[in-house]
Automatic annotation (TrEMBL):
This is Rieske domain-containing protein. It comes from Actinomadura livida. Transmembrane segments: none annotated. Coiled coil: none annotated. Keywords: 2Fe-2S, Iron, Iron-sulfur, Metal-binding. The lineage of its organism: Bacteria, Bacillati, Actinomycetota, Actinomycetes, Streptosporangiales. Residues 1-63 form the Rieske domain. Pfam families: Rieske (PF00355).
Amino acid sequence: MARVIVMDLSRHNTVLVGHDRYFVLHTEGRALLVLDRCPHRGGPLSLARRTPDGRRLSCPWHGTKVGVAAVKRTSLPMVRSGDEAVVVLPDGDDEGGEPISVIRKEVLANLPPDAPCAAESAGEAAGAVGAGEVARR
Ligand code: FES
């Protein structure tokens, strides 16, 4: 039996269904709810950065380049009306008993290819401070 949820895309960008996670990927002017799992060993594609040509996601775990077209094929059926999205979830293994959560988390895969992420910027800043501290001693 199909399960349907309604999510507010202005507040949430991730859906957890049992052990599976889906995130909202913005591509070609569309928002798609896609599987957050790298085909190599399950890394979080939501934390992948786009390659310079924008056509692939570089997995943060081992660097596999996953085509955005392949990621799009994992998308769930979703109908949008403004920020409201009605999503049809996959059938669960245990007759729909899997817990479902809708959350907001950082999604790096939607950043432009050349934009530095906040975490990298903070890390670089922290590294610069650390180097300065060492130099003063
Ligand atoms: S899990 Fe993505 S490259 Fe290994």
